[in-house]
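Dear colleague,

Following up on Tuesday's group meeting, I ran the structure prediction for the two-component complex that the binding team flagged. I've pasted the input sequences exactly as they went in, so you can double-check that nothing got truncated or mislabelled along the way. The structure tokens for the whole assembly follow below. Feel free to forward this to whoever is handling the docking comparison.

Inputs:
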Amino acid sequence: MDQRHVLHDVLQKLRDAGAQGDAYLQESRTLEVAVREGKLEEIQQAGIRGLGIRAIRDGKLGFVHTSDVGEEGAKHAAEKALDLARFATPREDLLIPEATGPTDGRDEGEPLGIYDPSIAERPIHEKEDWARSAESIARAHDERITKTEGAFYSEAISSVWLANTKGLFRHYRGSQVEVGVEVVASANDELQIGDASAKSRSWDGIPPAGELGRKAGDRAVKLLGGRPVPSGRYPVVFSPEAGWTVLVYVANALQGDHLSKKRSWLSGRMGETIGTGIVTIRDDGRLSGGPATIPFDGEGIDTRSVDLIAGGTVAGGLYDITAARRSGTQSTGSARRGGYAGLPEISASNLYLVPGERPPEEIVGDVGRGLWVWGMSGWWIGLDPSNADFSSAAFGVWIEEGKPAGPVARVSVAGSIEDILGGIDAIGNDLTHNHETKTPTFRVRALSVSGT
Amino acid sequence: MRIDERPLPRRRFLGIVGGAAGLAMAGSLEPFLRTGDARASTTFPLDGATATRILNEARSRGAPFSELFLETRTVTNVSLSDGEIESVEQGIFAGAGVRAVDGERTGYAYADSFEAEDLIEAARNASAIASHPVAGLQGIIYQVERPARRIRYLHPFDEVPQDERVGWLTRIDAAARAYDPAIKQVTIEHSDEMLHFAVINSDGLWIEDTLPLLYTRTNVVAEKNGSTGTGFGRISHRLGAEQMDGDVPENSGKEAARMAMVGIDAEPAPTGEMPVVLAAGGGVLFHEAVGHGLEGDFARKGTSVYTGRVGEVVASNRVSVIDHGGIADLRGSFNVDDEGTPPRMNILIERGVLQGFMTDRITAQALDTRRSGNGRRQSYRHPPMVRMSNTFLYQGEDDVEQMIRETKNGLYAVALGGGEVDTTTGNFTFGLREAYRIEDGKVGAPVRGAVLVGNGPEIMKRIDRVGPDLEFWVGTCGKGQWVPVTSGAPTLRISSMTVGGQDQG
């Protein structure tokens, strides 16, 4: 299939109708291999191909997606998008950008370290071996590990083309591997899951099976038998497996659409200090080899790095073209598409808390009595840009005199995001970019913990 | 960022999002179990001989069972924000998935196509799960069936003009704004779909069905004297456009606005252990607390907290929990599940005693029990797995007002947000959208910003009152794949659970 030809025909249809718009074409191949109790339990494979068309006529937006990307199917979809646009409300701020970047259709993914052709060339048994080995190492980690949910390897190889009625024509390829393992420890009629997972753009970036296997096994055993602690205000240390949830709240409040419509508790608060001086939260859409790195966003704008919080001060937001225009600023390349079937929506990319210099053991070692959170549950329930409240169930390890003093479960941690960022007094050096949203270990002086 | 589209980490997938549906249920199940007319369904471009070639290709390396799932789904989305229709979207998903099953092992592949060569290639990929010698594969004689109709609808969405949808949204918006001048923002996301699917398998089953679904979510923010409150309304039934008849849109907008106004006056929620009275419709608690643990796949792996406990007392004797995919009109219903099994009433817990697990084909075989009609999938791009449908705690006889009067100090939870559970420990959490303090046996001030935290098996034993007023809550359940569900409960009381708020009072 000639992608340029398909996109050209679609855009011509839009132009002929006096409309503007863009067309987003995606082709992906996916593979997933799951192993349980040492045996191959599931293989899934698929090829996905689809087209999403945005048609804007008289400021009104219609959108159609289809998996029929043949000549007739694509033309029909373009007509449908034009028809649907009739029913939307006209908006002045709905714009298709001028063409930027290369227009020769070259792959812009490989220079950013997001495409590794060797992944597809590796035989399936090597991928199965990773999972089998991770599961077996996790199960052998401790004699209390008696059951397993198994281990998996999954990969997706994708190509994306985006073209618009103003001459934009851009393309990238990307590869993404995700691996993970989950085992269950048991004692005294209680069960506890322990899990570990990681993403990588390249084959060489996949962590050794033993590393994740031991981590999953260790978590299961150390969390086994967790109990609530008495309610109170305590220092709370967030591990990388828990701390990222706080960043989701910050990025949600700093989405340009929420800011420009005054829907965010941070609207109108640029330049205000809400965190301690060591807190810098960055969203870097071009991080080399980052799990969320792409060269251009769903509107065709170059991705970039933005400091949302810089040294404790509210420093920036995430904007698409529309929100940027409303706010009198520039798009940050944050209009991301979840795939061909979705409209571009403002979203963070590689979002992280800039690491400090302290080893995590030292940050825990400073705590007299407090909670070391290893994971959050239901953290997303209260996510709402209109208020700063954060509350989530948490599990982890109790700290007494700087030492781990037994597992904790069924407690909740609550506070405003300002309480959290304004209470961060230590940030670790253990940041890894193995998921889209990550923090190193960090500590908050005091937060409300509910238990017994 | 929309939670229901954020890719969830594989393990922490047992979340549910959604909201309250004001659908009351009468004293008996009978009125909901009617069956009805057979609406003619179109057929896919596939003949029996081609189906057999595909199914046999999937079995060519020794998998004893194979299955073909074909689907076309037309989805229309309309969104409204600040009184403006932001976009009108439409999409068609069309394709087929092929599954090869060898005991507890699954090979799955799909194509965005109905072309024979594409599906044979998918079948070849799926077949790789097995590696046994194969005797000659025979032809398959198909038994073409139509499912018994439990879901009757009048107005399919493919016949609804766009301006009718726009009309629903503007009416919701107007009703919410008219409720109070403090209502500052109204955003509405509407989605409806017509799903046509076929399940064809190597046992000779060939079954097709067509289902409508609508989901309209309204979020309202109220602001007064520097304080904000949020409220939501949901409309979702397994019905056609007739579910928007009358003043349904207006009522949904008003309800969202009412909740937002309550939020303005809310104080920080209390902290610690206390009795909780859960108003009717709080079924998400049981979806999380016991439902997931009773999905047979976790029992098959031995990783559910309920593994091997059939016949044991797992809840107070006031508690009976049922899952039933065939209750007419409910969002979680279907005429036949995605493996071709008819839904039925599955009593999971009866008067506190564990009766059994929900199953799909693979788990029914592994657990040596019958298929419960809970094999569901998000689309042809996903293999079926064990999923809840409409899960509810059966109603009791305790008086609701008395229940509150007898509670000295505690929490009255009226509307719940989403929830999440770890099926291995049974530890769960869910959010409060609308809740009040109970002080001296009376409903007091509204509270905000809290989650409820607990352990499923423990909480089930602490249910000491169950009212007569069963209501259902609509949601979308995530377990690596998303499926529409409801969860139901009458008003009930839990003698003690952890409320996680910010007020250390």
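Chain A touches chain B through 91 residues (CB under 8 Å).

Cheers,
M.
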